[in-house]
Design brief:
heterodimer; A: alpha/beta; TIM Barrel; Glutamate mutase, C-terminal domain; eight-stranded parallel sheet; 19 helices; 10 strands; B: alpha/beta; five-stranded parallel sheet; 39% helix; globular
Chain lengths: 495, 153
């Protein structure tokens, strides 16, 4: 496994400040030398290639256009272990799924920079005749070969690589012609790593954001995106949005101006619509205060990220409803799952079918909005009252530097993530679903939510506990984890 | 009420963890919480745990069983040779379970289970298994193990 952090020679004091040009040039040289395909990265050539692409293959332009037109785009996930399988998958998602944005998910060895293990996985996949890797080994193939993926479809392509170590995958992806990259320092480090420090995770994404800005300086706007879905398990909107604000400030500090925000669906129509609206407004509020009023921050809504039902029919309802939630909420795009989700990675056919189901739901949502509903207003206002005290405390703790404040806030538990695998996080905050289906805070840990807000959450959750005959406590959180995967017989007992 | 450890199973020491490069911690954590409440002693290794670390922890803590989780599809690669590591460490009789979404995509469970049993796991659990089911099986297995057999029928 290669070093997670840059070498000491280029290690700046930790801050949110823009990485200076000369230091960044040295960092890039070091980074690209870590695997043979790094030598194929040629920034001038990559910039020319991006400029040669039509606007409809550039994700930044496509997101701006969808926002201007009030559309909700569809994007699946998807990655297989060999070039041939990946080409076939991307063509199927484009042709049969009518995907507006085509993905390449990397395999987990690549995400953890275990490139030699990914190489072995390709050989195993070829031998078995099926993918033994859970994604595409982008770094192993390198930018020249990976460009064939870009040339195979007439849509914008995004790299999905759930990792806190995006430095080489990002270089290879952008050089290949991918115009989007999902991931961020706070969200992914707290949700996808165990031993990596939050500081090193943020440093790694500062590299990627600085690289994105380097392309921008050369006239190529690329789309960066924040994975506010975090650990994917019952994340209340306020916690997602706190991380979105922090990561957006960090990215803007490196020069990123096209930054998407992903929110996992809570599966409550009102809470999701309020979250989508509140997310964009609150991120804009803090970016503007920090002097980045020119940043474009579209919101992407994500199909249910928790445990899925095993029954195809139940899963199909989550897929279709997910399209409705995204469209009614006013998301600029929706990231889909499929009826195979409970079993793991879908076939290209199931993946494409879910895209079409979602697309039909978006069509049916027309221009329906619920912004004038009293419940919508109540929830949106509540999210603001939950988010601001946490973010303000984070900024205070950093004495004006959001990077420094983030580390201190994580250590103090002021900034916390439910179900985090990262040992640096307290992970004491615990969510659960209330009697009406809203996600609420069961235990706040050390997060400084206002007292009246917590009282409201507790009151709503006590009602759920009483109704279900469950003790008010951890069991409520655990049953909320499984709720959506339960059978219909359990969810709606026969009258 | 939730299932409890009974008879020879009570107080047994179990290692839990998510194998390989897999970060899906929730199932393993809920299992650990439930096992602890049921009366087992738990050593939780957490997410992203190399196969070798399970063996190391088993030796250091003199564990009675290993509960491997995998949810991201690459379990089939990560779990190859897992039993051999225990044999090499002189722990050939270690009780080893695996559970989760163990392979890439929707595959027939009987076939998946057979593959993992052939790899040397004592039991493989399909997706959507609840902690209570695991506790019942642990009770049965520890009961026959004190009688010299490997696992219960």
């Amino acid at each position: 496994m290669s070093d997670a952090a840059p070498a000491e020679t280029t290690r700046l004091p930790f801050s949110a400040a823009r990485i200076p040009d000369d230091v960044f040039a040295a960092m890039r040289r070091e980074n690209l030398a870590r695997w043979p395909t790094g030598a194929e990265v040629d920034l001038d050539e990559a910039v020319d290639f991006h400029k040669s692409l039509p606007a409809h293959k550039n994700l930044s332009a496509v997101m701006r256009k969808a926002d201007a037109e009030g559309r909700c785009l569809t994007q699946p996930r998807g990655g297989f272990g060999t070039l041939e399988l990946q080409l076939e998958l991307m063509r199927a998602l484009d042709r049969d799924g009518l995907a507006d944005i085509v993905p390449t998910t990397t395999d987990s060895y690549t995400r953890n920079e275990q490139w030699e293990r990914a190489e072995a996985g390709i050989a195993e996949s070829e031998k078995a005749g099926r993918s033994m890797l859970n994604g595409f080994p982008l770094v192993f193939y390198g930018p020249r070969t990976a460009r064939r993926l870009i040339e195979a479809v007439d849509k914008p392509a995004i790299v999905l690589s759930g990792t806190s170590m995006p430095r080489l995958t990002g270089e290879v992806g952008f050089a290949a012609g991918f115009s989007g990259y999902l991931g961020s320092g706070l969200a992914y480090t707290t949700s996808y790593t165990k031993t990596l420090s939050i500081e090193d995770g943020i440093r790694n994404y500062q590299y990627l954001d600085r690289l994105t800005a380097l392309y921008r300086e050369r006239g190529v706007e690329l789309h960066r995106r924040q994975p506010g879905f975090l650990t994917g398990t019952n994340i209340p909107p306020c916690i997602a949005i706190v991380t979105a604000i922090v990561d957006a400030l960090l990215a803007a500090g490196q020069g990123v101006r096209n930054y998407g925000l992903e929110l996992a669906q809570t599966l409550h129509l009102v809470q999701d619509a309020a979250a989508i609206r509140a997310c964009r407004e609150l991120v804009q509020e803090y970016l503007t205060k920090a002097g980045y009023a020119d940043a474009f921050t579209p919101v992407t809504s994500l199909h249910w990220m928790g445990a899925w039902p095993y029954d195809d029919a139940q899963a199909a309802a989550l897929v279709a409803y997910g399209g409705t939630l995204a469209a009614v909420g006013g998301a600029i795009s929706v990231t889909t799952k499929s009826t195979h989700e409970a079993y793991g990675i879908p076939t290209p056919e199931a993946n494409a079918e879910a895209l079409r189901t979602t697309r039909m739901a978006i069509y049916l949502a027309r221009r329906i909005r619920i912004d004038d509903m009293p419940e919508f207003r109540r929830e949106k206002e509540l999210i603001g009252r939950e988010v601001r005290p946490i973010v303000d405390r984070v900024l205070e703790m950093g004495d004006g530097d959001v990077a420094v404040g983030t580390i201190r806030a994580c250590e103090a538990g002021v900034l916390d993530i439910p179900w985090s695998p990262n040992r640096q996080m307290k992970s004491r905050v615990l969510p659960a679903r209330d009697a009406d289906g809203y996600l609420r805070i069961l235990q706040p840990g050390d997060m400084p939510f206002p007292k009246d807000v917590l009282e409201y959450h507790e009151e709503r959750l006590r009602e759920r506990a009483a109704r279900d005959g469950v003790a008010f406590g951890r069991e409520l959180a655990v049953s909320s984890v499984y709720e959506m995967s339960e059978t219909l017989e359990k969810l709606i007992p026969a009258g | 009420m939730s299932a409890q450890a009974t008879g020879p199973a009570r107080g047994r020491k179990l290692i839990t963890g998510v194998i390989g490069a897999d970060t899906h911690i929730v199932g393993s954590r809920i299992l650990s919480m439930a096992l602890e409440e049921a009366g087992f002693e738990i050593v939780a290794l957490g997410a992203i745990t190399p196969a070798e670390d399970f063996v190391k922890a088993a030796i250091e803590t003199a564990a009675d069983g290993i509960m491997v989780s995998s949810l991201y599809g690459q379990g089939e690669l990560d779990c190859r040779g897992f039993r051999d590591l225990f044999i090499e460490a002189g722990l050939e009789d270690m009780l080893i379970y695996v559970g989760g979404n163990l392979v890439v995509g929707k595959q027939d469970w009987t076939d998946v289970e057979r593959r993992f049993l052939e790899m040397g796991f004592d039991r493989a659990f399909p997706p959507n298994t609840r902690a209570d089911q695991v506790i019942e099986v642990l009770n049965a297995d520890f009961a026959v193990r004190s009688a010299g057999r490997r696992i219960a029928e």
